[in-house]
Amino acid sequence: RCPVMNPAGPSWPRLRVLWVLWSLMAVLLSPWRLWAVEDNQECTWQVVLNKFETIGKNHGSDRFFEQEPLDTVDNLFGLLVDAPIDPEEKYLGFPYYLKINYSCKGESSEALVRKGHLTGLKPVVLVIFQSPVNFHRWKLEQLQIQMEAAPFRSKAEQCSAEEVCIMSWYTPMPVKNGSVVMRVDVSSNGLGPFIPNKRFLVNINGFLKRKQDNRLQFTVGNELFNLIPRYFVNAPSRPLWYTLDQTPVLILGGIPEEKSVLLTDTSFTDFFLVELSIDSCWVGSFYCPQGNFTATIYDAIATESTLFIRQNQLVYYFTGNYTILHESNHGSESWVRVLPNECIKKLCPVHFHGNGSEYIMALTTGKHEGYVHFGTITDGLVSFQMLPRQQSVCERIQVAICSITWAVYTEINYNLLLLVEIEDTAARKYFQMVGYNLVNDYLSILYTIPEFIPDARGLEFLMILGTESYTSFPMVPKGMSYNSFNNLLFIWGNFLLQSYDTENFIYLANFPKELSIKYMVNSFHGDIAIVTETEEIWYLVEGSYHVYKLFPSKGWNVYISLQVMQQSSLYASHETMVTLFYEDSNLYQLVYLVNNQQGQLIKRLVPVEQLLMHQQLSDPYSLQQQKSHLELSFTNFCPFTVMRLRDLPDQKTYTRQELYRAQPPHILEPSGFHTENSLAVYQGLVYYLLWLHSKYHKPYADPVHDSTWRWWKNKKQDQDYYYYLVSNGKSAGNVHIDMANYKKVYDVKTEYQLPERIFLDKGTSYSFSIFLTARGHSIKNELEPGNLFQLLSQVDLGVVLADPSCIEAVVKQQVLIKRNSVLFRVMLRDKSVCFDQGISGHHLMKTAMLVKVVGSAGHCVQNTIQGLRMQGNLMVPVLIGCPPGKRLAFDITYTLQYNNLQNRHYFDCVHVDPEMPCFLFRDIFHPFFLIQDLVTGESGSFEGSWTTRAAQGPPTHTPPAPPRFHGPLLSTYSLIWTTKNSTATKDLAFNIMSHNMGIEWLCLENSPCHDTVPHSIFAPEFFFKVLVSNRGVDKSTYCDYQLTFLLHLHGLPLNAKRALFILMVSTSVFLGLVILYIITCLLLPLMLKMCNTLRWKINTIIASDSYYSYSSSSIAFSRSSESKSSVGSKVGSKVAVNKAEPEEVVKKSLT
Questions:
Q1: What Pfam families does the annotation carry (predicted)?
Q2: Is the pLDDT of residue 79 over 50?
Q3: Where are the beta strands (DSSP E) in 477-618?
């Protein structure tokens, strides 16, 4: 047999070629992944604010202080003929644009932007409006608008049309009434280079004004441009105090011996050093114990529109110019000194607003020791009241000497928690926590703090029961911190005590008693940072008991070494921390760095997750024998390797976020770049879209539940014609407006993370699943009694509820033994017992749910698509009540259809108003209402119960309070209507109405619609102002649906006396006309003869007189000197002759 022929040459090259191909494939695949990671880390978005006049000039950024809309774009819309717009509407624009670029480390930004544009990159901007504090003035809503940026060539240099040159992207920067805090999220459209999403804070600065030379200056003081090192070097850090999520401008004092502050409207992305224009006087006296005078601003607190500072013992405030909030200018012209006769030793912040107001507390010393001045800020107006109202705290708790060290206000139950230092007769000092209720003026002692630090004996925490042993270290409380969501209270000093009910406290023994806490920073999402007097930074996860040291630590040293190797400019060998604060659940430092004798103030992220991970890796390691080699291994204390969220519901239903979407108009320019005119049109379209949103909240429901329906309802039929124009390049103004690009979006993709907060209505629930892959082999079978095998897992999940009497949680576990995983299904449900009915978004109850994997706090740090993230602890703030975005509307469309069907006819008013149809008095009126969800787009008939009140209400009249003109027990002949339903409210004041119930109009004698005077020949008309509410009669929801609308009624009957009077007058007039007609018909022939005879006589006299005058003109001229008597006789003879002539004529006619 012949051997099998092989190719010439050795066989190893084939394997070598295969290995080369595999290596090449690995090289081709891996770098793309690495490059994506590298781009993710190095490339970033850049956003600045530009006015319309500075578009394309590359001059930098404008300050955001203009708040009024501009009318400069309306002229452009007048030129857009044959476009789907309403020419009768007035289109306005916003004062600013967002200019968007991106940059990558080591590359030219201009070249990168050109590259991104040519590869199809378009930034997508999401503007998130923060709801206002005063919900009594403004409607509470979670509004967002998503816009696509438009490319625009720079005007700084000239280039041909075929070249790109320098370019940027622009979008309008919208402004909404009642909102001064905006978050701008910039993302990519998925084309071009990969750039991670980034959030910017774009807030309105109401503390700026424009000078006569068109330059901006601060109203609170003078800007300083030199950051002197002594302002910050070795100066102690201080807390940053403000109203959570509501403050557009932050203020930070503490600069030694200077009345200057740091002021920022971008959360210290940029900032200003401002010397305040205050008098800096000192009113220290014998009742104000003050050691010495200093110019330092010790306490600084920022609210939505007002800034507070304390210098020495004086308190000042300054209200910014926010016409968008107050509708009128409540701004201050100078700093206002408040509480001028008081000695204020400390200002305490209130992080949460409530009841439409913000709050601040001032602690006194001297003559009013033991009192708290409680400040309320509403629409920029500041007022203070001294509490307690009757006696001081010292007198109420019956002690001789006491001093209030700290105060915390809980806006939910209107309680003050006071940390009181007491000195007894033996000069022994101890501390108590006192509770005071602002409503009933009740004060009580809640807790007495131990005098010495407990002996934990090696435990991480210790429950204070009174039976434990104590060390010789005294407890020195210095302050308190309270989270209104989870009711977690901390008392801190050289110790940490925490409590959920202000009665039972837990001592956290992991914090060293040798240190003293200076202030605490709460993210209110489950994380707490602690700063000590020695500027150490500690970290605590809420719900756990272990406190972690972040700085200085081994993990910090490792991280700093890595940053130095990367030559990071955010770290230096000489640095001083100015403050520490949370922003979007991330911990940030404001640090003063000194590099090469040059100082700078920067904001940098504190990488908590990386520090904890490096801290774990610095723990002792072990070497394990693996066959022929040793393997280095670290102990991982995290009980799971993978954690994922699944089965998340539609987030819009629970987050209540309304989303609009807008895209720039299509341009006919071949280069694809927009012009100033097209950007102005874009500005006007976005403004009109948000204007339609604000005007959609009206009593009468549109036939289509969509705020943009009125915009396009008469233009949809012509959309093919508009497409024809743009296809042939004939659109006016070289722009084409696509109606589909401006709409409200309801189908939003659910993210794979828990929302920032959720809203729960009565009896509703929120459910999701958590998938955990266990570490190692932690799932096993175990034989239970009864010869049943039970799957057991060492991965456990716990749920902590802040208010278990109001909400409940159900957790179901499913063990997936083949996947070494566990699936937990969590459901949170409202118990329907802790909230009364309220208006949509008003007076919501704060609570929270904490989901934690046992043993994961501080140990589970995993790399996700968003970077390193702490896993295993999920805190979800919950707001119980009527969610925002729900309303009751009068279903006029179905009401007209149903009434026409039931009454077999429908008669509208003579003068038809399409916005307010009329209803006939004698017909049975069947009203129908809609429950409309402005977030999800759902709209359904309201089938619950409701009550109604009515009063006289023409379009120009608004009565203060509708009186009673209806009710089951009303016997004063003042009923407006009646129903066949006998069900009434408990107080028998109103009838309880229900779905499809008919109303019969009465308008009795004492009702306002009785005896309506008609203003024309048509039947009388009447306007009712109707108030419909389901409060107290509808138990299916927390929502108090209140609807006030005008109802137009016509065909009202007249009063009997007035009707008889009108009948008599009408009959008399009619009979008079008939008699006059009869008389006229009988006497008409004779009257005609008489008229003809008289006319003939007159003509004859005129003719005779003319003849006589002609024949005797000469004689009359010669005898002009005759007397008047002879002339009179001649005239008399002429008249006699003329009278005889008609008699002869009559006789001749008879014969």
A1: CATSPERG_beta-prop, CATSPERG_C, CATSPERG_Ig-like, CATSPERG_NTD
A2: yes
A3: 477-483, 488-493, 496-499, 506-508, 517-522, 527-532, 537-541, 547-551, 574-583, 586-595, 598-605
Instruction: State how far the Cα of 207 lies from the Cα of 204, in Å rounded to an integer.
Output: 9
- Tokens in use for 159? 């280039």
Asked if pLDDT for residue 996 goes beyond 50, the answer is yes
Tokens read off for 869: 């993230």
Encode pLDDT of 662-713 as tens digits. Answer: 999 999 888 889 999 999 999 999 999 999 999 998 899 999 999 999 888 8
In the three-class reduction of DSSP (H, G, I as helix; E, B as strand; rest coil), residue 658 is classed as strand
pLDDT in tens, 152-201: 988 766 665 556 678 899 999 999 999 999 999 999 999 988 899 999 99
What's the per-residue H, E or C state across 48-107? EEEEHHHCCCCCCCCCCCCCCCECCCHHHHHCCCCCCCCCCCCCCECCEEEEEEEECCCC
Q: Checking DSSP bridges between strand 886-890 and strand 929-933, what pairing results, if any? A: antiparallel
3-class DSSP assignment, residue 142: strand
Is cis: bond before 1142, omega within 30 of 0? no
**DSSP single-letter state for residue 282:** -
Beta strand 44-51 with 96-103: parallel, antiparallel or unpaired?
antiparallel
8 Å CB contact between 873 and 541:
yes
Q: Distance between CA 262 and CA 1009 in Å, rounded?
A: 63
10 Å CB burial of residue 701 (0-12, 13-18, 19+) is: buried
Residue-by-residue DSSP string for 945-994: -BEEEEEE--TT---SS------TT--SS--SEE-S---B-TTS-SB-B-
pTM here is: 0.86
Cα Rg of the chain (Å, integer): 42
- pLDDT digits 0-9 by tens, 501-512: 999 999 999 999
The token pair that represents 837 in the structure block: 């009915």
Cβ atoms of residues 391 and 368 within 8 Å: no
